[in-house]
Amino acid sequence: MKIYKKTLVRDLKMALRNPSSFLNPLLFFVIAISLFPLAISPETHTLSNIGPGVIWVTCMLSVLLSLNALFHYDYDNGVLEQMVISPYSLSLMLLAKITAHWLLTGLPIILLSPLMGMALFLDIDSIYILMLTLLLATPSLSLIGAIGASLIVGVKNSGMLLSLLTLPLYIPILIFATSAVSQAQFDLSISGQLYFLATILLISLMTSPFVSAIALKISLE
After folding, report:
1. pLDDT tens by residue, 49-81
2. C-alpha–C-alpha distance, residues 62 and 138, integer Å
3. CA dihedral defined by 30, 152, 167, 91, rounded to 10 degrees?
4. Taking the model in full, what pTM does it have?
5. Domain extents for the chain?
6. Radius of gyration of the chain from Cα atoms?
């Protein structure tokens, strides 16, 4: 685990030296949600109904914006090639990079979600369920996004291609997460949705680092 900790600390330090890589997606998250009451309707009932979907779609787009920086700087500096040929486990090092990405993107989104929920007039129980779904699903967004980012790491201006690769894989997460919050508003059971989100997280955690490592080796050949 020593190489995991070193890679994690290194990525966090690099992000702090270049704060725009994680601040820009967070600013997009806040600004985009703030514009919905102006564009659609300021009515409490309308905003509370669309609030879960708005927050989750904006969360997905924010994570997608930050994925370009996951391997971009290491690729430009030749660090990825050194990681591939190093004697350490490439999957473990990629898992550390994905963890750093979630700490800088997913975790701040979870912490900001209560404020965004209140701005869209969600009740306390709905905000609690929203945070729970974000806690279960944002790691999956980073894990799945890492596969797409590793596939196009050597492609210039790859933002659109990354979106086409990653967004279809995000759809099940979006469906179950928004369904959980919407059903919680009507006091319906949400255990099924939470189980599905947890299952997606476990499958992503077990497969994404290995698939990303294989994709990265192919991309760098």
Report:
1. 888 899 999 999 999 988 887 888 888 787 888
2. 11
3. -90
4. 0.91
5. 2-220
6. 18
Please check whether residue 170 is in contact with residue 144, taking contact to mean a CB–CB distance below 8 angstroms: yes
Tokens of 88: 């350490």
At 84, the pLDDT band (50, 70, 90 cuts) reads confident
What is d(CA 177, CA 171) in angstroms, rounded to the nearest whole number? Answer: 10
Length of the chain measured in residues? 221
Q: Which of 95, 56, 52, 55 is nearest to 173 (CA)?
A: 56
Q: How far apart are CA 219 and CA 107, in angstroms?
A: 29
- The DSSP call for residue 103 is I
Summary count for the chain: helices (H), strands (E): 9, 0
Residue with tokens 């350490």: 88
CA distance 165 to 43: 36
Q: How far is CA 44 from the centre of its chain?
A: 28
pLDDT tens per residue across span 98-135: 999 999 999 999 999 999 999 888 889 999 999 999 99
Residue 184 confidence (pLDDT): 87
Name which of 138, 97, 69, 74 is nearest 5 in CA terms.
Answer: 97
Return d(Cα 16, Cα 14) in angstroms, integer.
5
CB 116 within 8 A of CB 30: yes
Number of other CB atoms surrounding residue 90 within 10 Å: 19
Q: Give the Å distances, CA to CA, from 16 to 12, 68, 94.
A: 6, 16, 19
What is the rounded CA–CA span in Å between residue 54 and residue 130?
12
Cβ-contact 204, 140 below 8 angstroms:
yes
